[in-house]
Amino acid sequence: MTGLGYDLVDAEKSAGGLLRVYIDHLPPSEVFITVDDCEKVTRQLQHVLEVEGCAYERLEVSSPGLDRPLKKAADYARFAGQQIEITLKLPFKGRKKFSGELQALGDGWRLVLHAPRPTRGVKRAAAAASDADVTDQALDFSLDEVREAHLVPVVDFKGRRFAAPEDQAGAGLPDEEIDGGRIQ
Question: Which CATH architecture group holds 73-151?
């Protein structure tokens, strides 16, 4: 699939004959997978699977979603600095699930676990005093210790109203030319 410009994120086959394939653009792309991308890969895979004699009832190609799984070392490198959630194979201090910011650490990886901050309703002076006492912790790990990992979805419901003025639609255009036509 790399010849088409896509990365195979994951593939799974269910007992009912469903073959599900997850694709993403090759790094360093920040573009999302579209329906056209899925259609292109579906057509190519249908031909390849027929030639290879792979049995399946139904083929489904889709994006990995906002909570994209991290499977390979290249995935971890690509998403360093992002918020992720990992599940360890063996418990560490009684826990298997951890969430935080992924950082590269030599041959391994570090998950910076952000300490909980005061909630709403706490007085500012108390919040400032407690912030001075709060420290982040880190969990160092290798990929062979991880059962599964995925990105933590970040959804911004605020929209464009908080964008910089030059990024907003119509910035720098005469009023009559906003949205490609005259305002009536």
Answer: Roll (2.30)
